[in-house]
Amino acid sequence: MISEQEIYKVLLFEFPYFKKINEEKRILLCQRVKYFIEGTDFIPKKGLDITNRMKILIAACSQQLTLGFKKHYEYAYFDKIIVYPEKYLSTHTEKYHSGEMNTAGIVVLSWEDFYKGIKIDNDARNVGLHEFAHALEFMDIANKDVDETFAACLDKFTVFADYYLHNKSDKPLFRSYANTNLSEFFAVATEYYFESPNEFAIQEPELFNILKRAYKQNTAPKAPKLKKPTIEKTKDVVFGSYIPLLNYLGEIVLYTSISVISIFIGIMAPAVGIIIFVTSFYFVIVFFLKDSFTLHKMYVQIHQPLLKRIIKKVLPSKYKYETDVYYSDVMYVSAQEFDFNNKRDLLSQYKEGYWYTLCHVQKGKIYYAKQSTNDLNYDRVLRFLYREKMVGTRIDGEYKKYR
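^ that's the sequence the OP posted. Answer follows.
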């Protein structure tokens, strides 16, 4: 059994990242390293003897990426790590590798290359970070347990990465291997984020900012911050309609109906009336009172239900996100087709069309807003978002690119 004291000692002397974080995070990292080791099968190859020290350093590299996560930091799907003493012949590519991620839940590493990667922490070459970044990305794609904000940010990152690969190949910040595909671009960018953060933040601030949100860590605190322009409210609507009076009247009718029914039942059975009243309002708030949105050319307007607006006035700490949102804060918009034939959905005024879900991030928290339409031409909306506003786009759950 490896103790946290042993982990702390190894990391203090051999893991450069450990010296860059405060004591609170060091203790958290040690706890997570211990948890990771206990749930992972380390498999040696070619006669290698895997020591506690090696397990600690490999586990710490994995947890370096997810230290900002509150949950889903343990790579639950990846429960095996194969370690070779040096570069090995991959059975998948029949080439010599220093590391790889296997979709069967296995990470493979060359110890020689891995250790070189963590000891030299300013060259943006770290096979451990690279392969564990692949693991996180795969868990998102395969709908395994992964941090919700991280998953949302990957959509946004993919748009910028796609643009970078097709428009900045002549002036690359990243080494050439990043140009292989979007997945390798993400893994290489992760290496730069942790090992060459200042250069990254200065040359590609938008990409850097997305990874800062994804990993919930700021690796370049002294780098200049992105300046956002002032939002000028206009009526140039691209998508979405919202009539406050009609929506508020609908809410008032709903609340009144719940209250009248609860009072009527409460006269005969007070306890039952109270239960119905509380339960009804709970379901209304959780399942029906969703934010909606309108897309303008320069910003997104979030519309909160009347009850949320009242709560926000009474309890300022609740629902304190901005309702005028920059497109830089919108991670993705997904379109989901619905068709109820002769049945009307309680949440939509249309029989068929598309539900649009907008995901935005503010102050490290993730929020959603919905909008429905009977316009079946989803391409118009998604193309505008992807091409002009660099927002990730999905259709029926599948990522969609517009070049």
